[in-house]
Specification:
alpha/beta, 2 domains, 10 helices, 13 strands
């Protein structure tokens, strides 16, 4: 049966009217703005905050991975306090340090190396993370591909090495301590290249672009047996500190410290970045003096 143009036009008009009516009904029922206003008035869903506390974090991982591991810490601090805790990301280790020195953040998750390099009377370590053994230390790990012929640091001569940021402890451990220990100079290495993130080092090795690399132990363990083999570890190093400046608000700092010190017994910390999922202990600048001497080649 042949349908006339007039009939087709009528059908299309009816369909259009039906769709328009359905859309109007949908927005009437699911009015986002209206529902949002209602929810804001519910005191049991929202609370007022005394202030926003910004926390810096060095760019050792991609923004996505940092958010995945560090945002749960901010949520926990917010839940347990009268403040709203927010992350302030950066594109480099130095930028986070500048944020802290300029008062743009109250505290910052710094790396051990950048802290000992920039340690002064203005910066104060307040917390350091515990490892799975309940000790406030971490280690750097020399890693290679599982089928690699590299089994000791001596085997690195003539090889290509991937390292994280020049401000990360891991690369400095290899270049300033470990290679020297085995009498290997930088000039005997075929290539040394720094990458923005620890995970980027792992990826470069898995892709076969580099023969070996150095990352934090928690990253090495994450990929061990998944194409990566750990060759050796550094000596235990004081954990990456949470640092405040002399200008940081004392009440906010005390709130942060007290809450994180008590978090060890909470099950929720297992959802935090693996480096911090065993809790914290108090830290002080003196904890990092021996490391500062070690990197500088002094006893």
């Amino acid at each position: 049966m042949r349908i006339s143009r007039k009939t087709i036009g009528f059908i299309l008009t009816a369909v259009t009217v039906f769709i328009a009516a359905a859309v109007l009904i949908y927005f009437e029922v699911t009015d986002i703005d209206r529902n949002f206003e209602v929810s804001l008035s519910r005191e049991d869903d929202f609370k007022e905050y005394k202030d926003t506390v910004f926390i810096g974090v060095i760019s050792r991982f991609t923004p996505e991975k940092i958010y995945e591991g560090y945002q749960p810490i901010m949520d926990y601090l917010t839940e347990k306090s009268e403040y709203l805790f927010e992350l302030k990301l950066s594109s480099s280790y130095e930028q986070t340090l500048n944020q802290l020195n300029q008062g743009k953040v109250t505290a910052a998750f710094l790396g051990s190396y950048i802290f000992i390099k920039e340690m002064n009377d203005n910066l104060r370590a307040v917390l350091k993370p515990l490892n799975e053994n309940g000790k406030p230390f971490f280690r750097s790990a020399l890693i290679v591909k599982e089928n690699s012929g590299i089994y000791t640091v001596k085997d690195l001569s003539g090889k290509r090495i991937a390292l994280p940021s020049p401000m990360a402890f891991s690369g400095n451990w290899l270049q300033k301590i470990e290679l020297k220990k085995f009498g290997i100079s930088d000039s005997s290495i075929k290539e040394i290249k720094h990458f923005n993130y620890h995970n980027s080092v792992v990826r470069q090795i898995l892709m076969g672009n580099f023969d070996a690399g150095v990352v934090k132990d928690r990253v090495a363990k994450e990929f061990e047996g998944k194409g990566i083999r750990i060759v050796s570890y550094s000596e235990p190093i004081p954990g990456s500190p949470i640092v405040v400046s002399s200008e940081s608000d004392a009440e906010k700092v005390e709130t942060l410290v007290n809450i994180l010190l008590a978090a060890e017994k909470e099950k929720t910390i297992k959802n935090w970045d693996p480096e911090f999922s065993f809790g914290f202990v108090k830290a002080k600048n003196e904890d990092y003096l021996e490391l500062k001497k070690l990197i500088a080649g002094r006893k």
